[in-house]
## 1
Amino acid sequence: MEDFEIEGVTVRAGQMVGASPWVSNRIEEDFEDPERFDLTRYLGERAEDRDNPWTWIPFGAGRHRCVGANFAMMQLKAIFSILLHEFELAPGRPLEEYRADLSKMVIQLEQPVTIHYRRRGEEVVQ
Ligand code: HEM
């Protein structure tokens, strides 16, 4: 193992290097107004997830990119299309109150997420 340099940064032999979607998803050159929840950023010509394969990385990137990515996306669409067809969902508390807990390898929220759901046409269940 040897030291090497990439884009002006020296990586020492044996040093650990990590990639973080939390960081890469906030790169403004690739994601316009990154903190804004804006699903349209992925649609049509904007397709911000396609612009740079190294910054939109929920399934990793490169040689070891998730082999189940397409299957997972299909499952997500199948599950959510039924859920959203059958139920109305609403956040249980104002979204601004949520804070991320960055202290662990897998980033999660500091507090549990509560969701109010209602089968379309019925009363609210909490
Ligand atoms: C939402 C669901 C999923 C997410 C977020 C996810 C995410 C990931 C990530 C981040 C990696 C590491 C990629 C890297 O090292 O660059 C990975 C690898 C992998 N995933 Fe997934 N994955 C999902 C679903 C699946 C499914 C459904 C399968 C199989 C049916 C699968 C099979 C694999 C395999 C075999 C690897 C190792 C690939 C390799 O090392 O060459 N994943 N996944």
## 2
Amino acid sequence: MTSPRSAESTPRRSFWGWGNEDGGLDEAEREALKMMMGARLGVTELTELAIPRLEDVRLPEPRFAAPSSLVAVLSQDRYERAAHTYGKAFRDIVRGLEGDFTSAPDAVALPKDEEELRRVLAFCEERSLAAIPYGGGSSVVGGVEARVDGRFGGAVSIDLRFFNRVLEVDVTSRAARIQGGMLGPALEEALRPHGLSLRHYPQSFEFSSLGGWIATRAGGHYATLHTHIDDFVESVRVVTPSGVLATRRFPGSGAGPAPERLFLGSEGALGVITEAWMRLQQRPRFRASATARFVDFRHGAEAARQIVQAGLHPQNCRLLDGGEALNTGAGDGSRSLLLLGFESADHGLDAAMERALSIARGFGGEVKEGTGSTRETGEGARDGDAGTWRTMFLKGPYLRDALTRLGMIVETFETAVTWDRFEAFHAAVLDATTRAATEVAGTAVVTSRLTHVYPDGAAPYFTVIAPGKASGRVAQWDEIKIAATEAILAHGGTVTHHHAVGRDHRPFYDRERPDLFASALGAAKTALDPRGIMNPGVLL
Ligand SMILES: Cc1cc2nc3c(=O)[nH]c(=O)nc-3n(C[C@H](O)[C@H](O)[C@H](O)COP(=O)(O)OP(=O)(O)OC[C@H]3O[C@@H](n4cnc5c(N)ncnc54)[C@H](O)[C@@H]3O)c2cc1C
């Protein structure tokens, strides 16, 4: 057993669930959650599963030993292997709680520079080992799981935690060169002294990395204007089995297909993103936020569409249905709730907010008294309903784990669809999901929200909470997810708006993607990764 470098971050990350080992809900919070969900679902008997102990979990012996040249880089420590087995989807948490770590990687590589990383990739090529890049490990689509076929003699999870610095800041162009393994909070902390910010906030912000965001085309929240990480990527540096590929920095270029775009959404299948020059923004000084209530989701969605089509660019334009508002404590369940937020480093926002609220009122929106005016503080967006929602948003993953411990099926999925199909689409997906969940579990709560809205369409998000049967909760969820995804594809939506493809969405992605594009992508992979070791099973 080798453990070459200890994690630089303390406290230690949970090996089975979200966040740190000392994070999560305390006993009183878990008890309150149990009462609330029990009442909501009409379930009286909810027993809490114990947290797994590392010494008890099923973890196979590694299939190879680290060669002497890599002892300082490859860890085969029990904790590291268990902690790198899964991402953080519901199906991952369930398997973790059940102590099933049978697909653990044989080793975890912790390279501290590109030279060590190149040696790890060469070793994987030589020994036919799957090489799986690992940023924050927050994948919800099986993107980091070593579910690989018999061609491979084992798997190495390549953790980028030591690629954790901002290397250069170009204040004039408002951009920075940032290493791929940097997690959200550290990245923002390093930019703060320059008055700059990436302003990319996926819900997983605390425990996900720049390289992971780029590799999955992550979507930020509080970001209707700049939604996907794509918008911020100026150039990338990627270590591939065929060598290093570094694209040049341009604010824009018409010189052929853009090389850096190839790596957006590449999911570790083409190489390891070690650095990127990222476009930044000044930290906002002015903020305005408001909420409006609607009699139903349809009226709220119409208002959201008109607000973005008016070119107002709110940073936040998020619509919660009644159930979602109730779940997050931002409403009583009787009304849909539109959360609007504008921000700027440069100017007041009253005119834009006034126009957005007048559109909302045009669709019957009741605007909450005392909201909407510009505040020159960092705290404006956090008051009232929006503040309640934000707190719950960050706590959400811990709540999800707590509900999973109570034997629930609890998971979300997201998609995007153009406005012309939206109404029929939303109704069909909600119906298919509710029917499937009720069939599987007997009773279910399915809620919906619009997380991102565009001039040409919206990204609806759905959450399912249902009492799972005692065993086989992964299969129960899979049945619901298949029904939901079939409805999504049949009604013109995408298999994912921002969660990537991974291993879980592969069969559906293959149906969405043009065949010739798959061939072109396959050719690019062959050029960069001729032996096919890079994250096999995702994308291709
Ligand atoms: C509770 C929760 C909330 C979430 N909220 C959001 C959200 O709001 N928006 C959103 O977009 N996603 C969200 N996600 C999904 C996930 O956080 C994103 O996909 C995120 O971008 C993954 O980043 P990561 O660093 O954790 O990547 P990992 O999970 O480590 O890896 C994800 C994929 O990227 C590859 N990869 C990672 N790093 C690199 C690298 N340096 N080079 C090449 N490939 C790499 C991996 O091989 C894998 O295929 C959420 C997940 C959870 C559990």
## 3
Amino acid sequence: MKKYNVIIIGGGVIGTAILNELSQQGINNIILLEKETIGSGSTCKSGGFIRCFHQDSYLSDLALESIPTYMDISKEINFSNTGSLFMEKKENIADMRQEIARIQSKGYLLEELTPNQGQKRFPSIDWNNISGAVYEPMAGFANPLAASHYWTTKARESGARVMEGVSVKNIITKDREVVGVTTSYGKFYSDIIIVAAGPWSKRIVKPLGINLKIRTKAIQINFFENKNNQYPCFIDNTTKLYSRPEPGRLSLIGYPIDDWDIDPDVEYPLDKKNLSRVQNIAPTRIKKINYSSFSGGKYGFDAYTSDLRGIINTPPEYPGLIITTGWSGGGFKVAPAVAKKIVNLCLNKIC
Ligand SMILES: Cc1cc2nc3c(=O)[nH]c(=O)nc-3n(C[C@H](O)[C@H](O)[C@H](O)COP(=O)(O)OP(=O)(O)OC[C@H]3O[C@@H](n4cnc5c(N)ncnc54)[C@H](O)[C@@H]3O)c2cc1C
């Protein structure tokens, strides 16, 4: 089989963003291998929130760097500019203000809202028990699967190869250097291998003696009928609820699930306990929804790191190996910035 400049394992939003960025940088002769179909992992379940403000400035910066890329392709990814709110409790307001000022100093528009201002401006949200909020007028939501397909198509047009239904079985090494992969379709060779296989990354690199510090955690989003779904995306750090309008006169509402170490190869049913928690808690925030109008949901998962910062790792014992996973429920909004970081690592190795 022929030798490639770069092999990418995994066609989720992270792998496809890397593929696109490599081809944008003029690196050709690259291949992405996906065991199922593009975006079939966490990516196709994602809520698609695009926003900048995080409590952790490392993540705010990754998200901020990603926003221009998403604005450039807003039509292709069905971006909906609803704006986004992050609502805080009293003890976090000082830190929130500091992070607002830090992000504003980079030229990104953020507004601090008092509960009174919030209630006036966004009356369909109940501001009870909220001590303050950050509002991002540029934020909203988009379709992560559409982004993955768009990047795949663009890269293919520039000559990149993408193979779906090809599962990587193991990474081949020679004298402690990566040289290729064995797959369900035969062997592929390259001196640069990028593992971007979400939770499956752990299994792929384990035979090399690398123990990735990630755990798989469930995430569920639930949909309810809502004819008046004109409100911004929001994350409510007082109740842990998050929500956004969903096309089709629906509202998407999520609440964290504490299911860890789930098997990403098993198809799980919707968690009824999570649904009833949402039905109990959400009426305190969005009052006018009929919560018995549950209209389906998605039970997905993501790879989590303990600090939620994701992994961009180049193990020194295997030159040529780059691992990126662990995006902890937020990989879509940071994918373009992660891709840029990975491609810089590749350029260092190729040049
Ligand atoms: C319900 C839900 C809601 C979410 N909401 C948001 C949100 O609003 N905003 C946000 O930013 N993020 C959100 N996320 C998180 C985001 O979707 C993920 O962080 C992101 O999709 C991770 O992308 P990835 O490419 O790392 O992994 P994945 O999308 O899981 O892709 C990994 C790919 O690798 C492939 N693969 C695995 N093993 C192999 C192998 N051996 N050979 C070849 N291919 C292989 C898989 O088939 C898969 O397609 C949400 C996630 C879920 C589940």
## 4
Amino acid sequence: VKPVSFEYRAPATVDEAVSVLAEDPARTTVLAGGQSLLIELRYRTARPRVILDVNQVGGLDGLGVEDESLRIGALVRHAQLEHLDLDDPVAALMAAAAPSLAHPPIRARGTFAGSLAYAHPAAEWGALAVALDATVVLMSSAGERQVPAASWFRGPFSTARRPDELVTSVAVPLLGPGWGVAFSEHRRTHGTFAQVAVLAAVRIDNGRVRGARLGVAGGADRPLRATGAEGVLAGAEPHDDLFREAGAAAAAEADPVAEPHCSVDYRRHLVDVLTRRVLAQAAAWN
Ligand SMILES: Cc1cc2nc3c(=O)[nH]c(=O)nc-3n(C[C@H](O)[C@H](O)[C@H](O)COP(=O)(O)OP(=O)(O)OC[C@H]3O[C@@H](n4cnc5c(N)ncnc54)[C@H](O)[C@@H]3O)c2cc1C
């Protein structure tokens, strides 16, 4: 199948991009890395009247630390986060997760912001965004708006973005010293989306868990922050029994969706096993 005919626009500034979006928001689709959109166009599951290519827009490629957060511009590619030169456990977590995201050519083009905008329920960056309290920054002709990751994802391929809004960047708070991190994923074959992926950040002080973040991809119809399991860990002594309890709590709060190769029970089992695994690895970090 070939894409439907569309008008192609490639503005050079955010202001111009936002005015193109404002002309016909419901029938205009943003093109970033194109690694999901081009497939949708080919299958005609996306039938836009206008394609707004933002790859020439100045200022969207910024990547750096601002106000104790990693500010990721809308054109920052997955591969840049895989090889991030930053002395913070967030960089280690991104480096651990990124190799599970598709293949190197896809990571060279696809963007972090595009992944959050696409909102695949099993996307690694979605799990990271909810676990680390990221903020999505949007621009429209009405001005800037910020949406916390916790209220960004509305369901499979559905977000809080309004049709006239462009995601301009995402801010991921740094963790700082003392945090250990880990990532683990199960998928059918290399280069496919995860059946389940779990990532953890854990801070242990004086033999007790003083901070825990758990993000799950593929555990529900949207990225899941396993707050129940985080609660099990809070203030407790880190050991295998505790991680088993936390794994069971994460599995209980998961609400998986069945797929032909992955039943609800199997997904729940993966959440349990992978949660235990990442907690043990993150706790052993220091
Ligand atoms: C074979 C294959 C395997 C893959 N495996 C994985 C995987 O394991 N894990 C994973 O997470 N992803 C995977 N992907 C998807 C890939 O990560 C995409 O890069 C990502 O989902 C979308 O990023 P993009 O920049 O390519 O966005 P695009 O394809 O350009 O856009 C995707 C959607 O987001 C919207 N959008 C993008 N940027 C913006 C913006 N700035 N503002 C508003 N809307 C925007 C677009 O309008 C479109 O609807 C895979 C892709 C392929 C082809």
